[in-house]
């Protein structure tokens, strides 16, 4: 699996691009033009190398897509194996997963953007969407467990909660700019505050308007 | 402006399609294949009429897009002129706008979906995106006013709040199925509960786990 974070290509002795940096450019081009509208010719142009030089790194455009999606999905799936996601109260585990998901999303923004825009037109896309669904189901199970433990409100169907929660988190890819004034950590704090505690100030803390 | 709600085409004496029903089909096809990938030929095929019969209703594909986006944007903009959005406490006005936005989004789902997927590649799209930004700015001003009135928490930048709020609302188009078990009204209740009051139960209401 690809281990590089997509920011600093690790060169392995060979001059020019390595697979990771080819992948970084491919993901940017896929996000800009759409995967289907991107030909190997367009990729070669954006990389400034020949088509045959791309084939040195990957056998096909589909392999670039598969590697890119695996980078996003592998990082998300790994969250669920971390200790913070697997022991303790369910609402704490849920909050942990939300925070780590935002970290992955902001640090691998182009990769997660590609994943979230998939429409499932090819086998590679459908396989990735199935892995994404599995991830969502595991988070939905956490929402349900936190509700059963009496920590989350019981008047919202856990499936609705999970959809709204992912809706909020995933929408970040549409506007978040890494390196700007809003750090990923503060964004995670804000999102967790809004979703778990709400935007309303408790009555006791209110200034009389 | 188009007044029909996109569900029941109003026929005006002429046999076959009227403009509204042509529009309904066009919006469905744009959402499925993407606006740019949709030719007048594909539209004609989906409508089961000839290309020249389409031109009887609208001069061009761009006009179909413009009419469709105007239906979504006109409905959203009209919310801000309703009494519930223009008088009373800012947090109540904000909640009103959120609820009505969800109503528009669920009742005109394909039209709002088209609007939300725009990438701004043509002048028509850029004009629509500018109108959408104006709408967002007016809601952002409500968020700021509610914060100044001491009703919303002060530790989140109002711009972040607005982006997360729209992120949550807009994500509904990706999964909501009108006519299913979850009514638009219950969905609005759930979203408002989560965003304004939070998913956590207040400590006093908790069952000991």
TrEMBL record, chains A, B:
Pfam families: TetR_C_24, TetR_N. GO terms for molecular function: DNA-binding transcription factor activity; transcription cis-regulatory region binding. InterPro entries: Homeodomain-like_sf, HTH-type_TetR-like_transc_reg, HTH_TetR, KstR2_TetR_C, Tet_transcr_reg_TetR-rel_C_sf. This is TetR family transcriptional regulator. PANTHER family: HTH-TYPE TRANSCRIPTIONAL REGULATOR BETI, HTH-TYPE TRANSCRIPTIONAL REGULATOR RUTR. Residues 39-58 bind DNA. It comes from the Bacteria. It comes from Arthrobacter crystallopoietes BAB-32. The keyword NAD does not apply. Residues 16-76 form the HTH tetR-type domain. Keywords: DNA-binding, Transcription, Transcription regulation.
């Amino acid at each position: 699996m690809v281990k590089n974070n997509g920011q600093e290509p690790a060169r392995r002795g060979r001059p020019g691009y390595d697979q990771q940096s080819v992948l970084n450019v491919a993901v940017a081009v896929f996000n800009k033009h759409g995967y289907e509208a991107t030909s190997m010719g367009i990729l070669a142009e954006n990389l400034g190398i020949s088509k045959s030089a791309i084939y040195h790194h990957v056998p096909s455009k589909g392999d670039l897509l598969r590697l890119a999606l695996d980078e996003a999905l592998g990082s998300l799936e790994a969250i669920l194996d971390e200790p913070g996601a697997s022991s303790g109260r369910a609402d704490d585990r849920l909050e942990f997963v939300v925070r780590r998901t935002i970290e992955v999303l902001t640090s691998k923004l182009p990769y997660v953007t590609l994943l979230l825009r998939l429409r499932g037109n090819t086998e590679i896309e459908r396989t990735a969407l199935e892995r994404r669904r599995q991830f969502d189901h595991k988070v939905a199970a956490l929402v349900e467990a936190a509700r059963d433990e009496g920590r989350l409100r019981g008047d919202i169907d856990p499936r609705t909660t999970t959809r709204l929660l992912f809706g909020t988190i995933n929408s970040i890819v549409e506007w978040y700019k890494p390196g700007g004034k809003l750090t990923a950590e503060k964004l995670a704090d804000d999102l967790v505050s809004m979703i778990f505690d709400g935007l309303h100030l408790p009555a006791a803390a209110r200034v009389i308007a």
